[in-house]
Q: What sequence folds into this?
């Protein structure tokens, strides 16, 4: 250390710069976290006998916006866009097992088709968010998003329109829907054998979600149960 | 031999010089075709359609405990890993239905067993409280036989513990509440097909001492807990409770009061629990339920009657009939339904899915009603719901803070909409309190008015 004092000083400076950058990054990005209640995800599909739906209420994950991004409460404008793009990090994860059809036998068929034991979650990661213009003041902000959807361990690029609405001072409601093919994710549309033959499900499924996120509660709020 | 060579073979050549190898290759070709067939038919796959297994322990292996074990053995997802009874002979007999289960004489050791996820308590009613509360505390799902207890205090303590155990399933052994045939009849009654309800009646008659034989004097007392008022809720609690609960469920109300009568009329063997009881339950709207139960005469056994202005309904075990009034409107389907004769009356058989059976050309027979006993459906529901709650809590914990009780409660309440029908702690408490107070009315030959605070938690 004595031999290379300049190296030590350089390291210290470098480290403190890193620390500062980290602190700044942490302070500037605003993170909305998933709320345990009020969200829902629905998957609608078809089959040779009737349409089917599974629904889940647990959507975990978070939505982080870059410094300066601010959705004004009256939803007139959104600040902090860069070239119409919103710099954000959005990660969503849904447990396959939490998706329910109302019939436990169908749930187990779905879980087996989606290889739930190996891949217990459906993941979505947003790569790009472009504001759809023109925006009508007072209505939710609509974005064209590009992201990566991972189902049964297979990742695919997915384009989806999502709407972000400010529902409270520190709460956001994000809604959207997308249609995907089971076979794109290596899932064979289930054709379970039943007493009188086989039901065959259609390849296309529509995923619809409504997701509530909020700024982390202040410690005083957290103690309330 | 390769494929090309095989396809070059014509039938004559094959027959002429058919070798064993050719034959095998041909068989191979046939086999491939067979494998293709299901794909052409839609790629049908066999899926496992039962839920995750829930490991069970049965505490109390008397006659009813063994009945529970027999029914559990028929479920694909209810492995019995432990059986417990303080009486070794019962334990040995119970092992016939649960050969793989570990035997215990101390229930606390059962609760320490981490493998046990669900506990089914079929001990004498007055011994439920301690076991059920300890089991809930140990994090087990609990199926508690009905009545929950023999005192209001014990019943309320159990209900409170069940209510507090947010992460576990609690079911009361009111098995009729899980029975599909009963649900079919319930909708029949509630839709007004019988007109306005005017009264209800139920009975349970048998000629039987209710006393169990035992090898020692000490055992005799423990075994015959039903025969002493100190430990028993009497006939109305141990037998009548199921029928009275069914009536309250069908009439969609809780009784307001009960008047009782009873005495030891035939089995004068030193018991103080009446062998013959009668009670009248007042329901809102002037509808009364009269109930009688005796161990002195077996005529007409067990049944329940509901009398409406258009028709009467008779439910006997898993069968039911409707007796129409001459001036009642024609429903239509009853013209085609099976009829059975009773005394001078003609009963129209009520069978779940009877109209579908007719459409398919197969007439329902006298045995066409649900084939499985109500206990089977109750246990099936218990296992499925325990699994749903168990995995639901796991899923929530994997996504959010599991200590956020309010959010967890809301999540589980959402899941509960898909549960198989069952009697929970509220139904269990209501039925138990009703029976205990009815027994009090019988012993004092008085009228007891029900107080709301006994039922609310």
A:
């Amino acid at each position: 250390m004595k031999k290379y004092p300049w190296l030590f000083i350089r390291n210290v400076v470098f480290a403190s710069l890193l620390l500062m950058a980290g602190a700044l990054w942490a302070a500037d990005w605003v993170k909305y976290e998933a709320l345990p209640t009020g969200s829902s995800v629905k998957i609608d599909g078809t089959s040779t006998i009737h349409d089917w739906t599974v629904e889940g209420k647990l959507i975990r994950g978070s939505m982080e916006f870059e410094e300066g991004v601010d959705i004004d409460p009256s939803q007139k404008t959104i600040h902090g866009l860069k070239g119409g793009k919103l710099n954000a990090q959005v990660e969503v994860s849904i447990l396959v097992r939490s998706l329910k059809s109302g019939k436990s036998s169908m749930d187990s068929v779905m879980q087996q088709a989606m290889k739930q034991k190996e891949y217990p979650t459906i993941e979505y990661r947003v790569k790009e968010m472009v504001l759809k213009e023109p925006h009508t003041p007072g209505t939710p902000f609509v974005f064209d998003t590009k992201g990566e959807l991972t189902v049964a361990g297979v990742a695919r690029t997915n384009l989806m329109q999502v709407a972000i609405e400010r529902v409270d001072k520190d709460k956001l409601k994000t809604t959207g829907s997308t249609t995907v093919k089971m076979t794109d994710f290596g899932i064979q549309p289930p054709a379970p054998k039943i007493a009188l033959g086989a039901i065959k499900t259609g390849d296309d499924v529509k995923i619809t979600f409504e997701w509530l996120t909020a700024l982390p509660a202040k410690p005083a709020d957290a103690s309330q149960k | 031999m390769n494929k090309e060579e095989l396809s070059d073979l014509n039938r004559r050549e094959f027959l002429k010089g058919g070798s064993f190898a050719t034959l095998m290759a041909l068989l191979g070709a046939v086999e491939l075709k067979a494998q293709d067939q299901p794909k052409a038919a839609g790629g049908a796959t066999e899926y496992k359609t039962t839920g995750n297994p829930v490991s069970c322990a049965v505490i109390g292996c008397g006659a009813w405990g063994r009945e529970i074990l027999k029914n559990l053995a028929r479920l694909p997802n209810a492995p019995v890993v432990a059986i417990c009874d303080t009486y070794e002979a019962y334990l040995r007999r119970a092992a016939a239905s649960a050969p793989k289960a570990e035997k215990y004489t101390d229930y606390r050791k059962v609760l320490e067993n981490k493998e046990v996820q669900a506990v089914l308590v079929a001990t004498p009613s007055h011994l439920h409280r301690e076991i059920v509360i300890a089991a809930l505390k140990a994090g087990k799902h609990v199926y508690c036989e009905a009545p929950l207890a023999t005192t209001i205090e014990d019943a309320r303590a159990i209900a409170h513990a069940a209510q507090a155990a947010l992460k576990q399933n609690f079911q009361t052994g009111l098995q009729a509440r899980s029975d599909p045939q009963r649900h079919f009849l319930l909708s029949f009654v509630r839709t007004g097909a019988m007109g306005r309800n005017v009264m209800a009646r139920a009975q349970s008659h048998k000629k039987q001492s209710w006393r169990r034989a035992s090898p020692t004097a000490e055992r005799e007392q423990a075994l015959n807990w039903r025969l002493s008022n100190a430990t028993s809720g009497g006939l109305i609690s141990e037998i009548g409770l199921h029928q009275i609960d069914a009536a309250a469920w069908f009439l969609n109300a809780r009784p307001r009061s009960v008047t009782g009568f009873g005495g030891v009329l035939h089995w004068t063997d030193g018991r103080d629990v009446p062998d013959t009881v009668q009670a009248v339950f007042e329901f809102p709207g002037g509808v009364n339920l009269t109930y009688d139960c005796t161990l002195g005469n077996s005529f007409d056994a067990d049944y329940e009657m509901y009398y409406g202005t258009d028709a009467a309904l008779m439910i006997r075990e898993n069968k039911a009939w409707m007796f129409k009034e001459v001036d009642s409107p024609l429903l239509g389907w009853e013209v085609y339904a099976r009829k059975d004769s009773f005394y001078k009356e003609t009963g129209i058989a009520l069978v779940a899915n009877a109209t579908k059976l007719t459409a398919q050309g197969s007439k329902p027979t006298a045995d066409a009603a649900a084939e499985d006993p109500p206990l089977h459906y109750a246990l099936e529901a218990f296992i499925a719901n325990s699994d749903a709650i168990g995995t639901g809590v796991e899923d929530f914990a994997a996504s959010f803070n599991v200590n956020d009780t309010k959010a967890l409660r809301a999540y589980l309440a959402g899941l509960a909409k898909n549960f198989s029908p069952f009697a929970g702690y509220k139904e269990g408490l209501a039925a138990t309190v009703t029976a205990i107070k009815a027994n009090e009315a019988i012993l004092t030959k008085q009228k007891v008015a029900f107080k709301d605070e006994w039922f609310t938690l």
Chain A touches chain B at residues 34, 36-37, 48, 57-60, 93, 95, 97-98, 100, 102-105, 108-109, 112-113, 188, 190-193, 197-198, 200, 225 (CB under 8 Å).
